[in-house]
Amino acid sequence: AAVEEGLRHALVADELVLHYQPVTDLDTGRVRSVEALVRWEKPGEGLVPPGRFIPVAESSDLICDLGRWALRTSLAQLRAFDAAGGDCAGLRVAVNVSGRHLRSPRLVDDVRDALAATGTSPERLTLEITETVMVEDRAAWSRLGELRAIGVRIAIDDFGTGYTSFGQLARVPVDVLKIDKSFVDSDDPRTVELVRLVVGAARSFGLGVVAEGVEQAEQVHALRATGCDTVQGFYFSRPVPAARLEDAVRGCQ
Ligand code: G
Ligand code: G
Ligand code: MN
Ligand code: NA
């Protein structure tokens, strides 16, 4: 309850910030999108990691307030990047959406409002939904359909940790698979083969693939060999504040 109170205050007192992590396209060597990750700069305590407050926020509608804030803030940031005209102009952004917000009838309007308020074209926004939420919430699939009809892209986050069947993969209303870090970390030959199969299946279904949590050069090479050409992780850049993103993006390219 103390964390919840503190977080409620943080939202109005402007203590939350978004950090951005570049996603690198290996074929062109360019960064075309970033993932927005919330951070809490608590006065007197420094940076509170999301693991300490996201689960708390998820136990109430506070997570929807946080979600609305993240949508507005990240899209407003894209505008600022565009206006600055540097290496961050034209970037796309991926925003994490919680299960509770996905189940809320307000999500579609929240997304529409954030796009309209910031004058952002919907193609520049990807919503990340975890695989577990996606599989457990078949009822929410029609909502994802509505969002895609607006032009927003949908990604399955932490793909491989849940239980999407091959049958579902053919029907699930998504545009991108984000392969979980646990697969990137494994050098077991069968896991590597599994990644190759997932990348191939994604291609056949017309889906994009992003590998997450890439920390080493060897992992980049191994991923390339599986056909995966879009990557994100500390090897390229940690999530950084907006003011440092331009340097981070240049460092990735
Ligand atoms: O950087 P990392 O420690 O940033 O994030 C930890 C977890 O918090 C991840 O599972 C991530 O998806 C989640 N997370 C980060 N930012 C947000 C956000 O804005 N909304 C939601 N729902 N989850 C977030
Ligand atoms: O669950 P989700 O994929 O939304 O959250 C991404 C999480 O992974 C964030 O906590 C982010 O800080 C973290 N992350 C991103 N790249 C790396 C990496 O290369 N290594 C590790 N350990 N964590 C990473
Ligand atoms: Mn994510
Ligand atoms: Na993930």
Automatic annotation (TrEMBL):
GO biological process annotation, one example: signal transduction
Top-level division of the source organism's lineage: Bacteria
GO terms for cellular component: membrane
Keywords associated with the record: Membrane, Transmembrane, Transmembrane helix
The keyword Membrane is annotated on this UniProt entry: yes
Start and end residues of each EAL domain: 1-253
Name used for this protein in its record: Diguanylate cyclase/phosphodiesterase
Protein's organism: Kineococcus radiotolerans (strain ATCC BAA-149 / DSM 14245 / SRS30216)
